[in-house]
Design a protein that fits this description.
By secondary structure, the chain is mainly beta.
Length: 206
């Protein structure tokens, strides 16, 4: 990269954030955060983009996305999804919370009961993404792949005349597989293959 090109684009360099991107593909590879603990990632104001955070974070804040596909690798604390519309998420987090979201699909690994608030038309299924290094990150975060609370959803605004969320039908589920050009490592899967049995199984005891 030339010095002039660096100067022209230095404003776009934000290792821990992705902001105001339209029709872009943004990738943070494993190790992008330098092995640091306590990294908070921020994704906001993006549209029609694919955003892949393939590294561990402490917390992740996702705000104001439209028609995006987003992967969030193991988050040792909370992932907050707010004011997002028409998006698909693959998320691993200790705690998942969404607010003011609509028409989104969420493939989730959650260590605790997921919480949604003032949201509608959400679809949930178990986490089903793969990328190199995911298994080690999962272990480093202290998560047990056999104890996924993805379906134990608590809706602060539950209503008697219908539901604000549903389970994603198996024939509509989308598995995300990420590989990196030039890397000899194969994508890691940390969960069993999606099946009707998996989608209809009761959540683990809390």
């Amino acid at each position: 990269v030339s010095l002039d090109a660096f100067r022209e684009n230095v404003g776009d360099l934000d290792a821990y954030g992705v902001r105001d991107r339209i029709r872009k593909t943004i990738v943070r590879k494993p190790g992008a955060f330098g092995g640091l603990s306590g990294v908070d990632a921020h994704i906001e104001g993006c549209g029609n983009s694919t955003i892949l955070i393939c590294d561990r974070t402490a917390e992740c804040f996702v705000d104001d996305l439209v028609n995006c596909k987003v992967l969030i690798g193991p988050c040792s604390s909370s992932a907050f999804i707010r004011n997002c519309t028409g998006c698909t998420f693959w998320i691993v987090a200790r705690q998942f919370r969404s607010r003011d979201c609509s028409n989104c699909t969420i493939y989730l690994y959650a260590h605790t009961e997921p919480v949604i608030e003032t949201s509608s038309d959400l679809s949930f299924a178990p986490f089903c993404a793969e990328y190199p290094g995911l298994r080690a990150q999962f272990q480093d975060a202290g998560f047990n792949p056999d104890r996924n609370m993805w379906s134990a959803i608590y809706d602060f605004n539950g209503r008697a005349d219908g539901a604000n969320w549903r389970f994603q039908p198996l024939d509509q589920c989308e598995v995300l597989v990420v590989s990196f050009e030039g890397s000899p490592d194969e994508p890691d899967a940390i969960a069993p293959a999606l099946s009707q049995e998996l989608l209809t199984a009761p959540p683990p005891a809390s």
